[in-house]
Amino acid sequence: MSESSLAELLRARGLRLTAQRQLILQAVLDLGHATPEQVHTAVREVAAGVNITTIYRTLELLERLGLVTHTHLSHGSPTYHAAGEDQHVHLVCRECGAIDEVDPELLHPLSDQLAGDRGFRVDIGHVSFFGLCARCVDGEHS
């Protein structure tokens, strides 16, 4: 998203574009999948005075604006990524922490069955599978 588009979106909501908001959004875009702590580390390389509370509040704002979304890829902090990305299912390695993505089409048969059998609608964009990546299964990370 361009700086002017972000500024217009914020102004439409009665907010202003700050350097911190811009840096935080850019960090999420650059990092791909990032926890607030990872965003904080990236932002502090450019603006050392930004505190973690500002990161959390800004990420919440950016999510309300529809610019980022989050998922839970571990027991810790949520992981944020750009909302404009195609939906994807996360594959999280419990050994090395690698995160991979697969097409949500793989889950549509299960999602359709759950909808038909139980009336349950799966939010596929928030689905994560935990296990071992191929490299850890092969012992390459040991």
**SSE-based structural type:** alpha+beta
Low-pLDDT segments:
none
Largest β-sheet summary: 3 strands, mixed
The residue-averaged pLDDT reads 87
Shape descriptor reads globular
Supply Rg: 18 Å
Helix and strand run: HHHHEEEEHEH
Taking strands numbered 1, 2, ... along the chain, how are they ordered across the largest sheet?
4-3-5
Throw out a few tags for this protein.
three-stranded mixed sheet, two-stranded antiparallel ribbon, 142 residues, alpha+beta
Structure description:
This protein is of the alpha+beta class. The protein has 6 helices and 5 strands. The chain has helices at 3-12, 19-31, 36-44, 52-64, 108-118, 134-137, and strands spanning 68-71, 79-82, 89-93, 99-102, 128-131. Strands 4-3-5 form a 3-stranded mixed sheet, with no helix packed on it. It has a two-stranded antiparallel ribbon with strand order 1-2. Strand 1 and strand 2 (79-82) form a beta hairpin. Helix 2 packs across helix 3, helix 2 (19-31) crosses helix 4 and helix 3 (36-44) crosses helix 4 (52-64). The longest helix has 13 residues, at 19-31. It starts with a helix and ends in a 5-residue tail after the last helix.
